[in-house]
Q: What sequence folds into this?
């Protein structure tokens, strides 16, 4: 018997970053939107814990116990005194090291899949607690939809969204490490007063309304200057998307994937074509959101 879970990618429509905390993390006000680009995680009983991966970026995915999917299985098994003897197979469509929570998606997916396979019957709260131990973005991968994340980004409140937003995502030629982008944020912030991160009331109102033009005027990402500083060519991708008619162009999370909000599905196709032809990125995808979080299929 196998269990397969489908888990979406995310884009941040607001990412407000505070000063570095004593533990090295940053307090965030992080508005997540789950979008329809998915990884599928399948778990099957096996002699021992094993991870395999297929998909365009599969070669960059670690198959050892640093993989968040393996860590999720070990964490749940540890809590139940079980042996994490499963084969975890990841069908990967979310870009690796792209700022779209691909690794987090695999962690949330493996956790839900193992819970189902082993009949551990973990409550939603326990699953969310394990997710938060695995990484700051993992709880959101489990719940999906739209949510405000505070603390490290792991303490979630679900948000109302009044419609579907159409996006184009441009994948870059190489990845960016999230810790490196946060370090660059700290370096650029040196000597400046960093305000407490707070969710923008305007942005939350606009999300609830579902109006893409108003959302485009409200999106922000405090990590964008740091991502651009480490990866200056991303400015060309952002300019190409804007030139093609995107309502907003921003770095997704810590990057280097760039995200383009468009008026509707048709406009998304046009922007995607133009970005594809621009020579400023590796691949281009369209996806709409919000969509549901990790789901057994
Ligand atoms: O929580 P996660 O393992 O996904 O975080 C990866 C890295 O991103 C952390 O080690 C830290 O460098 C940085 N980070 C941060 N503040 C957050 C979330 C992540 O500095 N709120």
A:
């Amino acid at each position: 018997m196998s269990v397969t879970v489908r888990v979406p990618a995310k884009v941040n429509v607001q990412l407000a970053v505070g000063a570095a905390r004593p533990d090295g993390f940053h307090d965030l006000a992080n508005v997540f939107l789950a979008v329809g680009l998915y990884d599928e995680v399948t778990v099957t009983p096996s002699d021992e814990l094993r991870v395999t991966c297929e998909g365009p970026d599969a070669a960059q995915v670690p198959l050892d116990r640093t993989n968040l999917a393996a860590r999720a299985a070990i964490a749940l098994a540890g809590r139940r005194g079980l042996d994490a003897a499963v084969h975890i197979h990841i069908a990967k469509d979310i870009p690796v090291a792209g700022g779209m929570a691909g690794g987090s998606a695999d962690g949330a997916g493996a956790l839900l899949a193992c819970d189902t396979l082993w009949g551990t019957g973990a409550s939603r709260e326990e699953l969310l607690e394990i997710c938060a131990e695995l990484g700051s973005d993992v709880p959101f991968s489990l719940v999906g939809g739209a949510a405000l994340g505070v603390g490290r980004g792991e303490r979630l409140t679900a948000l109302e969204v009044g419609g579907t937003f159409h996006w184009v995502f441009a994948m870059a030629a190489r990845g960016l490490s999230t810790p490196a982008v946060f370090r660059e944020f700290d370096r650029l912030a040196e000597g400046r007063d960093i305000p407490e991160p707070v969710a923008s009331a305007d942005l939350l109102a606009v999300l609830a309304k579902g109006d893409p033009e108003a959302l485009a005027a409200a999106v922000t990402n405090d990590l964008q200057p740091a991502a651009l500083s480490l990866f200056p060519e991303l400015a060309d991708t952002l300019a190409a998307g804007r030139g093609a008619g995107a309502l907003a162009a921003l770095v997704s999370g810590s990057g280097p994937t760039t995200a383009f909000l468009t008026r509707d599905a048709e406009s998304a196709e046009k922007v995607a074509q133009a970005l594809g032809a621009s020579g400023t990125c590796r691949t281009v995808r369209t996806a709409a959101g919000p969509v549901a979080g990790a789901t057994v299929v």
About this structure: Residues 25-26, 28, 135-137, 152-153, 178-179, 182 surround cytidine-5'-monophosphate (CB under 6 Å). The chain has two domains: 3-159, 165-289. The chain is about 35% helix and 30% strand. Residues 170 and 284 are 5 Å apart (CA to CA).
